Amino acid sequence: MNPLDIENSLLSLLIWLPVIAGISILAVGSDQRATMVRGLSLGFSILVFLLSIPLYTLFDPSTSTMQFVEKASWIQSYNINYHLGVDGISMPLILLTTLLTVIVVISGWQVITERVAQYMAAFLIMEGIMIGVFASLDSVLFYVFWEAMLIPMFVIIGIWGGPNRIYATIKFFLYTLLGSLLMLVALLYLHNVSGGSFDILDFHEVKLDMNTQILIFLAFFAAFAVKVPMFPVHTWLPDAHVEAPTGGSVILAAIMLKMGGYGFIRFSMPIAPDASQELAWLMITLSLFAVVYIALIALVQQDMKKLIAYSSISHMGFVTLGLFIFNSQGVEGAMMQMISHGFISGALFLCVGVLYDRLHSRMIQTYGGVASKMPIFAGFVVLFAMANSGLPGTSGFVGEFLVILGAFQANPWFAIIASLTLIFGAAYTLWMIKRVIYGKVVNEDVHSLTDVNAREIIMLSMLAAMVLIVGVWPNPILEVMHVTIEDLLQHIAISKLP
Fold first, then answer.
1. Tens-place pLDDT, residues 80-107
2. Counting C-beta atoms within 10 Å of the first and last residue's C-beta, which end of the chain has fewer, N or C?
């Protein structure tokens, strides 16, 4: 196979290789072969990550057109196609997915001792499905991937989760499924008015009156707001995070939440541009409410996982705020916030997992003085805490700075309210660090703690490197998305109804 053939089928390879690998591991694996299963899982996840790198190296940032396009007839009688492609918005999210899957496999290396094959297979299959969500250009294909990714996460939480995992999985499943049904209705309507096409790019060209756009926007809102999650449909997330195993929490926070923001960019804003601007007040109000109110809720949490879960909701409020102020700084800041939050939230959940593996408690009051026993671990935690607080020089600063800058251009009050998260974020994050990492050892069990091992150092170092590199040098990410975002904003501007 020559390089051109690989380029023309690269997205299919990234989608189906981990799915097939996961199914193969299910067929081969048993707990007696756990070592082989772990090795195969790591090998396949690294291979998929390496195969995703050409998406960046061969990407042309000077155009907003879809690249690495693949198209074949799927269900010919209904004009449903297997249509894939990426642009400057979806490509970075695919790279984020492939990198974090490698880290999740490493994180579960010694921790998962039962049903190892099923655990690793679930993450590999979910990786392929999530890449499919970001790469789909046919709305039916997108919907199939969108719904299918619920199944592996449902299994991961339901089997390897905590004592209330059944309640958390059902709540997670119902919230996300019910919202998606309204999206399906909107897609079917758009199919009818677009001349029988299910192509997402064809939907972007459909001209709709304001009332229809508002209904379409609200239907998409039901699906994407739940996934972000936005206030007030956020209550499923803390429960899911608390009950999920560490790897499940990492993927849930770092990748799955980003699909809500991606949905707004790919569907809501270009398909219903006038309704997006008409209802921007609602989106901005809910976003600012999440940024401030949910941060205050995080401040009183005693469970570290719940604190980080509420922190995620607050930080994702920055994403929706940046998207609906309709300027390049805001939208680019929202994208940077999604990518940065993937690194930071994933790292924080891994850090909680490191402590939980040792003392089997997530409660803040269990710890104190951890730095005296785990100095290397303490260094990692403090770095990620500073990044979560938006410290300049870390990736957490870049997205928040751009969103606040864009918000100031739209309305100074938006920027003032949004900037409160810098205060509250520092408050709940650093207060947690003070009580867990520093101070006196109040629990005798802390004396038994051992510092991070080589496996844990590898996974935390990978994320620490990304947090620092993106924080100091964000341009490689910004330049690939700039033209695509400018084209999106221009499309919204010229689509305005008379």
1. 899 999 999 999 999 999 999 999 999 9
2. C
Confidence (pTM): 0.94
Burial of 412 from C-beta contacts in 10 A (0-12 / 13-18 / 19+): exposed
What whole-number percentage of the chain has pLDDT above 70?
A: 98
Question: Residues 81, 199: contact at Cβ < 8 Å?
Answer: yes
Beta bridge partners of 119: none
Cα-flanking dihedrals φ and ψ of residue 205, to 5°?
A: -95, -5
Whole-angstrom Cα distance, residue 123 to residue 409? Answer: 42
Q: What are φ and ψ of residue 33, in 5° steps?
A: -110, 30
Please give the Cα distance from 279 to 281 (Å, whole number).
Answer: 5
Q: Looking at residue 234, what DSSP letter applies?
A: -
Would residue 196 be called left, alpha or beta, if left means φ above 0 and alpha means ψ between -120 and 50 degrees? left
Taking the C-alpha atoms of residue 216 and residue 268, their distance in angstroms, rounded to an integer, is 8
**Residue 3 burial (CB count, 10 A):** 9
DSSP string covering 264-278, please? IIIIIHHHSHHHHHH
pLDDT digits (tens, 9 = 90+) for 408-429: 988 899 999 888 888 888 899 9
Do residues 94 and 148 lie in contact, with contact meaning Cβ atoms separated by under 8 Å?
no
Beta bridge partners of 136: 84
For the packed helices 236-243 and 304-323, what is the interaxial angle rounded to 10 degrees?
140
Is the torsion defined by CA of 403, 404, 405, 407 positive or negative?
positive
| % of the chain residues with pLDDT over 90 | 58
Q: pLDDT value at position 60?
A: 92
DSSP letter string, 163-224:
TTHHHHHHHHHHHHHHHHHHHHHHHHHHHHHTTS--BHHHHTT----HHHHHHHHHHHHHHH
Local confidence band at 308 (pLDDT 50, 70, 90 cut-offs): very high
**Strand pairing partners for 82?**
72
Q: Which pair of structure tokens corresponds to residue 166? A: 């059944």
Rounded to the nearest 10 degrees, the angle between the axes of helix 90-107 and helix 328-359 is 10
- CA angle, corner 358, sides to 355 and 360, nearest 5? 80
Q: Evaluate if residue 277 carries a pLDDT over 60.
A: yes
C-alpha span between 100 and 154 (Å, rounded)? 19
